[in-house]
Amino acid sequence: HTADGKMLKVIASEIAEREAEHEVAGEVLSLEKGRITVACKKGAVDLLVVLPEGKKRMNAAALLNGLKNKS
Fold first, then answer.
1. Cα–Cα dist 13/2, whole Å
2. How would you write 17-57 as a 3-class SS string?
3. End-to-end CA distance of the chain, in Å?
4. Burial of 4 by CB count in 10 Å (0-12 exposed, 13-18 middle, 19+ buried)?
5. Is the pTM of this model over 0.70?
6. Which residue in 10, 50, 57, 68 has its CB near the most CB atoms, within 10 A?
7. What's the DSSP call for residue 68?
8. Strands 44-52 and 8-15: what pairing?
């Protein structure tokens, strides 16, 4: 889910190069380089393509740009 409680489906992701041993699973670690990096139980994943509730499929960079425009 997003910070505003809406569903966010992950369409494409890849294992992140970043180590994430001490973070809480599900915690957003980074919003950089057009990727959303999320901690897992072991390691982390980069979200590449997502489907926000009520919207069309988009890459993570487009979602981040939309979030910046709301600020």
1. 17
2. CCCCCCCCCCCEEEEECCEEEEECCCCEEEEEEEEECCCCC
3. 19
4. exposed
5. yes
6. 50
7. H
8. antiparallel
